[in-house]
Design brief:
Strand order of the largest sheet of chain B: 2-8-5-1-4-3
Strand content of chain A: 5-15%
CATH superfamily of one domain in chain A: HUPs
Order of helices and strands of chain B: EHHEHHEHHEHHEEEEH
Shape of chain A: globular
Structural class of chain B: alpha/beta
Number of domains of chain B: 1
Distance between the termini of chain B: 13 Å
CATH architecture of chain B: 3-Layer(aba) Sandwich
Order of helices and strands of chain A: HEHEHEHHEHEEEEHEEHH
CATH class of one domain in chain A: Alpha Beta
Largest sheet of chain B: 6 strands, mixed
Oligomer: heterodimer
Distance between the termini of chain A: 50 Å
Largest sheet of chain A: 6 strands, mixed
Helix content of chain A: 25-40%
Radius of gyration of chain B: 17 Å
Number of helices of chain B: 9
Helix content of chain B: 40-55%
Strand content of chain B: 15-25%
Radius of gyration of chain A: 19 Å
CATH architecture of one domain in chain A: 3-Layer(aba) Sandwich
Structural class of chain A: alpha/beta
Number of strands of chain A: 10
Strand order of the largest sheet of chain A: 3-2-1-4-8-5
Shape of chain B: globular
Number of strands of chain B: 8
């Protein structure tokens, strides 16, 4: 429990730092367990009565249970919720053709439009390092350009040493001292803030158990199957499990070897490589 | 005789990790390819053989079309040799059709549910091609050429889908190290060079932003550019 207290304190510190440094921050709520935990932490971090912009990107094919959960807790928690939707993308793209293109059109594009239209300068996200390799490289404060890319490196000058030809323009985060750079100059369109980046899947469920945080019913086993990770209905499949309560999930995670995102068809690494190989002319 | 053992995606860190002594030779290090916007195979090899940055020229052809690039010998440093032999080099005499099967299997891999089977066939095809090039390369070195360049794609092709599979990558590096061992005693100047390296993305591999070089001579080069080697080789040739 000491670990959870430490994680909670740290995350609340990061959230408060972001709220103080940015003019128009918003939290991205996918309604999965991680972003719901982040939302829970944000509600604890906020001063009494203050409200935070909450965005839910609706891809048009989320599980019914997700929509029900969203309606219920938007009311119960009195959230200032905006639903972002790219109608054009929903009309023109489907996962049968390409998971990546579908995700890009329905999710990324919808978020881009929202950020631009509302002048959002910071997005709080519930990503975690242990989800997969690409997220491992993330920082707590991560600047993005208008195309959502991290482009904050420059070529080294002749006198600078080291193997890499590039030098990061992002200041070092002195995580242990709680010092985070938040000003990245005019090139940064907005900053991604990752308050729970250092939490593991086990930490999340331990915390859900400790705090009694409500989560979507899909996480609990029915007929020997449950979802470990949720998103669009068409692109998620359940894993074998008998864990039908939070306590049982906490226990299950201590022994399982199955990867958290094993049920997600839209595998980010595979998509990244596929796209890269295509751009290099391999395919 | 001058020989270039041109290895696509030979990764500096893996050469170190697997301690490939023969690939490292006497002098070795990373190449600086930061002048290029992306580490693209065709662009890098074309720039290597001409000693000039060919990026703009090649990119105008298009992503797929660039693989048909065939730079005339007059624009390369190969003209400085009497009887040069170049095997399968992208940007020069690379036969896109000979690599078609690999491209089709790569596409299939991302589209099929039976990934294991396609991957097995994809790897097998890459190794088969590798053996063919290896035999041709070793034969050329024993023939009467004053210059031989052999291009090996196996580390790149297999690496893209298997870089996270350490044992498989180690067996490829051991094989390449073994080829270097076989040839290094027979020739005057051996340059081992890659266009770029490779970094892991989960089980997959992506091009890294530097390449690898090594020479069987004592020479100090600090982050040389891939376009520097045309001149370096010719100055070594001329003593």
């Amino acid at each position: 429990m000491a670990r959870l207290r430490e994680l909670e304190n740290k995350s609340i510190f990061i959230i408060r730092e972001a709220l103080k440094k940015f003019k128009n921050p918003a939290i991205l709520w996918s309604i999965g367990k991680d972003s719901t935990t982040l939302l829970w932490l944000c509600r604890k971090a906020l001063p009494m009565g203050a409200k935070l912009n909450v965005i839910h990107v609706d891809t048009g094919c989320k599980f019914r249970e997700i929509y029900e959960f969203r309606s219920r807790y938007t009311k119960e928690w009195n959230l200032n919720l905006t639903v972002a939707k790219n109608e054009e993308g929903i009309k023109n793209f489907s996962p049968e053709k390409s998971h990546f293109e579908c995700c890009n059109a329905r999710k990324t594009e919808a978020l881009k439009q929202f950020v631009k239209k509302n002048n959002i300068d910071a997005l709080l996200l519930g990503i975690r390092r242990d989800e997969h390799g690409l997220r491992n490289k993330e920082r707590i404060m991560s600047p993005r350009d208008k195309d959502f890319r991290w482009r904050f490196a420059r070529e080294k000058t002749a006198t600078e040493e080291g193997d890499s030809p590039f030098e990061s323009m992002q200041d070092i985060e002195l995580d242990g001292w709680n010092i985070f750079a938040t000003d990245f100059g005019a090139e940064a369109d907005h900053v991604r803030v990752h308050p729970i980046i250092n939490w593991t899947e086990q930490d999340i469920w331990d915390y859900i158990q400790k705090e009694g945080i409500p989560v979507v019913d899909l996480y609990f086993a029915k007929n020997g199957k449950r979802y470990r990770s949720i998103g669009c209905e068409c692109c998620c499949s359940p894993v074998d499990s008998d864990a039908n309560t939070v306590n049982k999930i906490v226990e299950e995670l201590r022994t399982t070897n199955i990867k958290e995102r094993s049920g997600r068809a839209q595998d980010k690494e595979e998509t990244y490589i596929m796209q890269k190989l295509r751009s290099l002319g391999y395919m | 005789m001058i020989v270039i053992f041109a290895i696509d995606a030979l990764e500096y860190n893996l050469v170190e990790e697997f301690n490939c002594e023969n690939l490292k030779q006497i002098s070795y290090g990373k190449t600086d390819i930061s002048e290029f916007s992306e580490p693209r195979t065709i662009v890098l090899w074309s720039s290597f053989i001409t000693g000039q940055n060919k990026e703009d020229e090649i990119l105008t052809k298009g992503n797929k079309e660039m693989w048909d690039t065939k730079i005339p010998i007059e624009q390369t440093f190969f003209t400085k040799f009497k009887n040069p032999k170049v095997i399968d080099l992208p940007g020069y005499n690379y036969d896109k059709n000979a690599h078609n099967k690999s491209r089709i299997l790569l596409k299939n891999f991302f589209e099929t549910d039976n990934k294991g089977k396609v991957l097995e066939e994809y790897n097998r095809d890459a190794f088969e091609h590798h053996r063919k090039v290896r035999d041709e390369f070793l034969e050329a070195i024993n023939a009467k050429h004053d210059f031989v360049l052999g291009y090996f794609s196996v580390a790149d092709v297999v690496g893209h889908l298997n870089f996270g599979h350490k044992e498989m990558m180690q067996s490829i590096y051991n094989e390449l190290d073994d080829i270097a061992k076989q040839i290094r005693q027979k020739i005057d100047i051996l340059l081992i060079i890659s266009d770029h390296g490779m970094e892991g993305v989960g089980r997959f591999g992506d091009h890294s932003n530097y390449g690898f070089w090594s020479l069987n001579k004592k020479i100090v080069l600090k982050n040389p550019k891939i376009t520097d080697f045309a001149k370096i080789l010719l100055s070594l040739k001329n003593g």
